[in-house]
Amino acid sequence: MPSTSEVRAALAGQRIETPSWAYANSGTRFKVFPQPGVPRDPWEKIADAAVVHRLTGVAPTVALHIPWDEVEDFGKLASHAEEHGVSLGAINSNVFQDEDFKLGSVTNPDARIRRKAVDHLLKCVDIMDATGSRDLKLWFSDGTNYPGQDSIRARQDRLAEALREVYDRLGPDQRMLLEYKLFEPAFYTTDVPDWGTSYAHCVELGEKATVCIDTGHHAPGTNIEFIVAFLLRANKLGAFDFNSRFYADDDLMVGAADPFQLFRIMHEIVSADALRPEAGIAFMLDQCHNIEAKIPAIIRSVLNVQEATAKALIIDAEALAEAQRSGDVLAANAVLMDAYSTDVRPLLREVRADAGLDPDPVAAYRASGYQERIEADRVGGTQAGWGA
Ligand code: PSV
Ligand code: MN
Ligand code: MN
Q1: Which residues form the Xylose isomerase-like TIM barrel domain (predicted)?
Q2: Range of the domain at 49
Q3: pLDDT, position 388
Q4: Has residue 76 been placed in a domain?
Q5: Which residues contact 57 (CB under 8 A, 6 or more apart)?
Q6: 44 C-beta closer than 6 A to ligand 1
Q7: How many distinct structural domains can be found in the chain?
């Protein structure tokens, strides 16, 4: 069994990045339900992210989405974050909401539009220089809706060319995270539809390019922990966008739909000793809270990741290895299920108390009066960008 102090130290040292857009109003293409008190600008989104970090102790960075979080002076935004006790995390590029990108951004058949898309990505690297962010996260909505609409192969060539130009612009400590998604908004082909495509481009690019796994971006039934294990072994897993899904890209709170899957993913991470921040994997949330209160939902998500992690950490690795060595299928499975069935909430409450935090961050938020304050102070909160 791992020692309790090791488990506690691993939990206390865990890092989970929250996304600026999850604090703002968002919805579906049918309706955005506005909520009182949501941030009106990136400055207020960061203030809210800082509250999540203060209460949980494990969410010290906040990801930005450009241009949703466009400001004049990104250095100032970084200082604002520092003043609030957090720092700026991954810069997410957005080449999916401009009229010009109807037929694609970096894979568009029109060279002028490809230039425009690549220029946006390069600008995101400039922003990283100003914010001190390590990671550029790329997700492309590029693809086609109809057979014959464009050459699948030519689009791969255009993608490779664009990625190369952006990759070559990265500084020595900067990285590129290439996210994939099976479909939507493209319905026939997507240019980066799966981990294999992302992996192949990352291998071609070099060591600063790694794959980002968004847990909501797979076909139903996909074994995500297999992907995690494969990419870890190949040293090509750079990040997670955590969320959960019942049907497609639902962006619900991580661990809400399938906490067992989250546990299996975290088991792969823990068994590869990849939980430590030095291992270089960014554990980020990418969620949209359409009907639930934003800040408590983000806190809940952080707790869900912590619970899955704690269960993975208490797996009896020696007993598991022994059962695997001797081919005892049932014993091996029982080791995993014993850990999964353990209530780790008391342990997490102790870890929080040891760190000087309230053991129940959601209750602490409700008691803090912060929600009442922002509802009184902020009028006319912004939309994250989705569902407009
Ligand atoms: C696309 O569905 C995605 O998962 C990408 O990460 C985007 O940047 C993000 O959603 C925006 O919420
Ligand atoms: Mn994502
Ligand atoms: Mn998504």
Answers
A1: 74-251
A2: 4-377
A3: 39
A4: yes
A5: 12, 352, 355, 357
A6: no
A7: 1
- Give, for ligand 1, the residue of 20, 179, 298, 383 to mutate: max count of ligand atoms closer than 8 Å to Cβ: 179
Tokens standing for residue 81:
């974050």
The pLDDT tens digits of the residues spanning 193-230 come to: 999 999 999 999 999 999 999 999 999 999 999 999 99
Pull the structure tokens for residue 165.
């130009």
Distances (CA, A) of 147 to 11, 143, 194, 255: 49, 11, 19, 36
Report which bound ligand comes closest to the CA of 241. 2
Residues of the chain with pLDDT under 70: 1, 385-388
- Are 271 and 317 a contacting pair, CB within 8 Å? yes
Residue 388 lies in a domain: no
Residue 382 lies in a domain: no
Give yes or no for residue 142 CB within 6 A of ligand 1.
no
Domain contains 52: yes
Beta bridge partners of 261: none
Looking at the CA of 26, name the nearest ligand: 1
End-to-end Cα, the chain, rounded Å: 50
pLDDT at 384: 75
Three-class secondary structure of residue 184 per DSSP: coil
What is the 136 CA–ligand 2 centroid distance (Å)? 13
CATH of the domain at 267: 3.20.20.150
Q: Which of 349, 319, 228 is nearest to 281 (CA)?
A: 228
Residues with CB under 5 Å of ion ligand 2 are 214, 241, 286
Which of ligand 1's atoms lies nearest the C-alpha of 212?
6
Is the minimum distance from the CB of 26 to ligand 1 under 6 angstroms?
A: no
**Exposed/middle/buried for 44, CB within 10 Å: 0-12, 13-18, 19+?**
buried
**181 Cβ inside 6 Å of ligand 1:** yes
CB–CB of 227/213 below 8 Å?
yes
Q: How far is the CA of 146 from the centre of ligand 2 (A)?
A: 24
pLDDT number for residue 387:
45
Q: Residue 67 C-alpha to ligand 3 middle, in angstroms?
A: 17
User: Which one of 45, 91, 92, 121 would you pick to mutate in the ligand 1 pocket, going by the greatest count of ligand atoms within 8 A of its CB?
Assistant: 92
